[in-house]
Design a protein that fits this description.
Layout: H1 10-17, H2 23-33, E1 43-45, E2 49-50, E3 60-61, E4 64-68, E5 73-79, H3 86-99, E6 121-127, E7 140-146, E8 153-164, H4 179-189, H5 203-212, H6 219-261, H7 264-296, H8 301-308, H9 312-316
Parallel strand pairs: 5-6, 6-8
Antiparallel strand pairs: 1-4, 2-3, 4-5, 7-8
């Protein structure tokens, strides 16, 4: 029986980093992440749902959205499974936040004055998988607007930090050299701990232990956590089952094609193509099945989009 909540459940992640009463945890995490670059003394949580300017435009829902005491905008996203075009989605979200800083007014209105001074927008993504869509496969990837010739920062108004937790290579407590590495070690392994490490080093980890202890949750919190955990597990199980079925079908089709050709080269090609096609079909079927279950459970469209990666139009067709 796990002692601490799973930080990669939707409810668990927001319990740790998305509550006003616990905002010191988010401030500490961000300061450790940006050590030597920025220091945040306070932040304000903003409405996670950013409504569109026009009815026909799609709104945006972030996991966590806040502004710092220095005016920076920070978006924090948690993603459990691979999603096509995820990096494009983060660029889109950050760009919308840039655009929304503009001062609105009518053409010719001399009272509308704005000099295009923008607040920096930071996007921090914690990924519980290894991205394989062209992004460098390393634990931490920092993206900024750079001069391509001399690699100097051209503008600090857009910044993206991707943390791929499976690629964090430190698997023992004593390997962690600073508090940022301790954060990552804890988040990656929290649901397996019998005790929270590093409490003697920093009071923030003691508080983390207290608020994530499953036994200390109220009845209402436990119900919300269990439901969030169920959604996460159902989604994972559906994807795994669909992928397994797709691999089996792909393997069988590949073997059949290989036998028909009667050549080793043809057989190998058939296996490879069959597996690839089967995996792709399996993932698509898995996302659709997960969306159907979430629709039946009354989950909002925005949440289904975040868990499955499907577009709103695709989800509506499943009703």
């Amino acid at each position: 029986m796990p002692r601490f909540i799973n930080p990669f459940s939707d409810w668990g992640f927001k319990k740790i980093f998305g509550q006003e009463i616990n905002k010191d945890l988010l401030i500490k995490f961000l300061n450790d992440l940006l050590d030597g670059e920025h220091h945040i003394t306070d932040l304000v949580f903003k409405d996670k749902e950013q409504l569109p300017e026009l009815v026909e435009m799609r709104g945006i829902i972030y996991d966590i959205y806040c502004t710092t005491d220095k005016g920076e905008h920070i978006i924090v996203e948690m993603q459990n499974r691979y999603q096509p075009f995820f990096t494009d989605r983060t660029i889109y979200y950050a760009s919308r936040d840039i655009v929304n800083q503009g001062v609105k007014g009518t053409v010719g209105d001399t009272n509308v004055k704005w000099n295009y001074c923008l607040a920096p927008v930071y996007t921090v993504c914690l990924l519980n998988y290894d991205m394989k869509d062209g992004t460098p496969t390393k634990f931490r990837t920092d993206i900024a607007l750079m001069d391509m010739k001399d690699n100097t920062v051209f503008s600090d108004r857009l910044r993206f930090i991707y943390l791929m937790l499976p690629l964090f290579a430190k698997n023992e407590e004593d390997e962690c050299e600073n508090d940022f590495e301790r954060w990552i070690y804890i988040l990656k392994n929290m649901s397996t701990f019998e005790r929270m490490p590093f409490q003697a080093r920093n009071a923030v980890f003691k508080k983390l232990s207290e608020i994530t202890d499953i036994a200390a949750l109220s009845k209402d919190e436990r119900e919300k956590y269990d439901e969030s955990l169920k959604v996460m597990r159902d989604y994972h199980a559906t994807l795994e089952g669909a992928a397994l079925l797709g691999r089996r079908e792909g393997l069988e089709e590949g073997r059949a094609e290989g036998r028909e050709k009667g050549l080793a080269e043809g057989r190998e090609k058939g296996l490879a193509e069959g597996r690839a096609e089967g995996r792709a079909e399996g993932r698509a079927e898995g996302r659709a099945e997960t969306a159907k279950m979430m629709l039946e459970d009354g989950e909002p469209i925005s949440k289904i989009m975040r868990y499955t990666g499907l577009a709103e139009e695709e989800i509506e067709k499943l009703r």
